[in-house]
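Bug #77: duplicate submission created two jobs. Keeping one. Sequence:
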Amino acid sequence: MLALAAVVIPLVEPRLYVPVDPDHSVSESSPEQTASLLSTWLFAYLDRAFSRLCASSTCLSTNFRLAGRRYGTAPRSGRFSPLDTLHSKKRQHAAWGLLKVFRFDFLFIGVLMSLHAFALLANPFGMKMLLGTSRREERAL
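Kept job's structure:
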């Protein structure tokens, strides 16, 4: 019973609205942001239907509020500013902006790939040493 309650209650209770950018938060949160996980999963198929229905901008502006994370002002400020090619002073390829933003992630992935390559190369040497040790033990007997 406790396990059932631990699964069902988080699925049906409404979520708390936490703004992406607290300085420029929306006065009212949209129902999409506070809906329970179960209702979000069950009605996800309607997103395509609404986007096809409201191809014009007047339908979107009068009937539906956008969620706060869909306004697009948060990526421009702070960490993601090198990715904004329209407001950048120097012209560069988008890949260099990605490398600037995610430099520690790329460094971490590079270190892990180097360790993986070292482990793959170390495997045959370890087997050779293991077999050499077992041969010496056989000769000693």
